[in-house]
Design brief:
Blueprint lengths: L10 E2 L6 E2 L6 H6 L5 E6 L6 H14 L4 E6 L5 H5 L4 E2 L5 H17 L4 E6 L4 H9 L1 H9 L3 E8 L3 H13 L4 E7 L13 H4 L2 H7 L3 E5 L5 H6 L18 H23 L6
Parallel strand pairs: 3-6, 3-7, 4-5, 4-6, 7-8, 8-9
Antiparallel strand pairs: 1-2
Length: 274
């Protein structure tokens, strides 16, 4: 899947061979010039770890050079906005109001400012938002601007999770699909084996072939991190509430490096458009 856009043209000074764009850019600005926005929509059954995955997606995209805005579209819970104070909470109490707020955000932050978005869905509005992104008008507008939608479905080992995967792939035909197996929501001794009945199902296995599969290991200190008010994106900073426990910080940093590496590969892998 290609996210690159054309770099700014440069002119050459014939006397000294220097190149210039007319203004001096920092290395970060030069990198961002080559990155096209992505819209990552996280979904799945309630309590499966969507908000955790949304934070991982944010960190992953930032590592790939994207400027990222997180969007909390879960009107009933708003857990992402509680985890990330800078996250934008969509305004509205019903589907049309939330979509109007989302459209305004896309116009201002994605289309105009070139930011990537991570949209954390839930609260019964996931189907509304998914259908909106899958609509022909929205798809054509985003495609014309080189903006790819990535549907990330977080699953546990339940049949309900399998249903979410199949529904997402069926409805968002133009999206790049990623399935995240959250090992933190299965009995610890089972790990990936807990998913075997799902993947043995021929119908579900056929859907999995249309997506990138990512395994998210259990985050050992998830409860303590939440209890002390620490946040994944700042876990290694001196001002983090977790700074007093270097063991926790080290374990979490190692976990983050692994899951963001796997997710970045999934974002970058070409798949046939459904």
């Amino acid at each position: 899947m290609t996210h690159q856009k054309t770099k700014k043209a440069t002119s050459t000074n014939s006397s000294n061979g220097d190149t210039s764009t007319g203004q001096i850019q920092s290395p970060l600005e030069q990198q961002l010039d080559t990155v096209s926005p992505l819209i990552v929509v996280t979904s799945g059954k309630g309590g499966v770890g969507k908000t955790l995955e949304s934070q991982v997606a944010q960190i992953t995209l930032q590592g790939l050079g994207h400027e990222v805005l997180c969007v909390d579209a879960d009107g009933s819970n708003s857990s992402l906005a509680r985890q990330l104070p800078e996250a934008h909470l969509l305004e509205g109490t019903n589907g049309p109001e939330l979509l109007a707020s989302l459209e305004k955000l896309l116009l201002e932050q994605c289309l105009a400012a070139g930011k990537s978005l991570v949209v954390d869905t839930g609260g019964g509005f996931d189907r509304t938002i998914r259908s909106w992104f899958a609509s022909e008008d929205v798809t054509n507008i985003l495609n014309a601007r080189g903006i790819q939608v990535v549907s990330v479905t977080v699953i546990d080992s339940s049949l309900d999770s399998a249903g979410h995967v199949m529904e997402n792939i069926d409805s968002m035909r133009g999206a790049h699909h990623v399935i995240v197996m959250n090992l933190g929501h299965v009995p610890g001794s089972l790990g990936e084996r807990a998913f075997k009945p799902l993947f043995d199902n021929e119908e579900f296995a056929a859907y999995v072939k249309q997506a990138q599969l990512v395994v998210m290991p259990r985050l050992q200190d998830a409860i303590e991190i939440d209890a002390i008010g620490a946040r994944l994106h700042s876990i290694t900073k001196a001002e983090s509430p977790a700074a007093t426990n270097p063991f926790l910080v080290s374990r979490t940093k190692t976990w983050l490096e692994a899951v963001t590496s796997d997710l970045s590969k999934a974002f970058a892998t070409d798949l046939p458009i459904n």
